[in-house]
Amino acid sequence: MHIHILGICGTFMGSLALLAKAFGLRVSGCDANVYPPMSTQLQQAGIDLIEGYDPSQLSPTPDVVVIGNALSRGNPLVEAVLNQNLPYTSGPAFLAQHLLPARWVLAVAGTHGKTTTSSMLAWLLQAAGLKPGFLIGGVPQNFGCSAQLGKSPFFVLEADEYDSAFFDKRSKFIHYRPRTAILGNLEFDHADIFPDLAAIEQQFHHLVRTIAGNGRIIYPKTDAALTRVLEKGCWSETDTTCEGGRWQARLRKDDGSCFEVWLDGKPQGTLEWTCSGQHNVANALAALAAAEHVGVSPAQGIAALGEFVGVKRRMEKIAELRGISLYDDFAHHPSAIASTLDGLRKRIGKVPLIAIIEPRSNSMKLGAHQAGLPQSVSQADQVIWYAPGHLGWDISSVAAACSVPCTVARCTQAVIDQVIRHAKAGSHVVIMSNGSADGLHGKLAKALEELEDLP
């Protein structure tokens, strides 16, 4: 079978391409811009890449065209597919139809922490010798890749609630039919496709409806939105985490880098690891509970998480220059920003913490999270709001409402100037964006390296 993937350089579609190639299919694809690192991975795997969307690439005709959710009507290649009446499908539907049959799918859903929790879970199964497959929207550093086919029935999936394609507005996770499902948390997000939280809750309940009676749903008892989802109807086993749940943590260090794991009121072991923050403690409990469902004991799981390295772009320390620690983080929702900064603050103590935040997501651009931003940065000593493009609302109003000193920067050089002005040896600087921030990470590292001395 020959599949041609439109939008192949995205994280999900690129990972799908790699899995399809490993499965033995002929794979080609295109994107508006064919760019590394995904283009490099695809080319090394022997996948033919085409830049742009010229309809001529449909000759010779593929058996099926897989259309990414970034493409819409009016795209010349999409129009050609429809006009020629070629078979087409979405990425999630293709994955479910061709690569997931007969697999035990462990799906990780939620507003925050999907990538990290999926990475933890895949590593737990790998460390237990279960040789899982996985598709994750990031790069787990224990594996060094975002997807692998695996050599067992078990397949870990980051289960996104975003829509599947221009012709299928259901959430991606509706296609996956998991036997084990983590519902990590639920807040309003994706304001470009969901009008309110109730609409997202409805999609999550559609997911719940696809899980078998002998499957298992793992969720934190303290999450009101998920409680409402399950109250709509639940036909599967449930397992609970966090306060009031079967799986609980007792912190030995306030930053979450060391805690005891308890199950049904009994201690299972102590986890000391490189991660920090209450959000990662919650992620770990969910991953342990999911792994236990497929036979990994709590003791095995705790030992494996002690060797969990983390995920690229999730509080990843990318440099230490002139005594300044520089981090890259993907957080782009007020709750994620707040929990990440809180974890870092508790780890580093009272030394200076500078947060650089790019409000780049579609929800941010629409102003959906504007009200929650000032409080989300309260643990920082200095905040730089990086807003080079038009947001549709005034970022200065957020800066003015913050309880900590804030500035607004419209270009990367302005950010660098502010960091050099405020940073000193021992400072920690975290760049928070779900994009490349116009290469800010490398530019700032270079500027610090070339600095003769800090002011």
Structure description:
This protein has 455 residues and is α/β, with parallel strands linked by helices. It has 3 domains: 2-91, NAD(P)-binding Rossmann-like Domain (Rossmann fold); 100-305, UDP-N-acetylmuramoyl-L-alanine:D-glutamate ligase (3-Layer(aba) Sandwich); 316-450, Alpha-Beta Complex (Protein-Tyrosine Phosphatase, Chain A), CATH 3.90.190. The protein has helices at 11-22, 38-44, 76-83, 91-99, 114-127, 197-209, 224-231, 278-293, 298-305, 334-348, 362-365, 373-376, 395-401, 412-422, 440-450, and strands spanning 2-6, 26-31, 48-51, 64-67, 88-90, 104-109, 133-135, 147-148, 154-158, 163-165, 168-171, 180-183, 216-220, 237-241, 247-251, 258-263, 266-272, 316-321, 324-329, 353-357, 382-386, 406-409, 428-432. The strands form 5 sheets. A 7-stranded mixed sheet has the order 8-7-9-6-12-13-14, sandwiched between helices. The protein has a 6-stranded mixed sheet with strand order 18-19-23-20-21-22, with helices on both faces. Strand 21, helix 13 and strand 22 form a beta-alpha-beta unit. Helix 5 crosses helix 9 and helix 14 packs across helix 15 (440-450). The longest helix has 16 residues, at 278-293. 49% of the residues are buried.
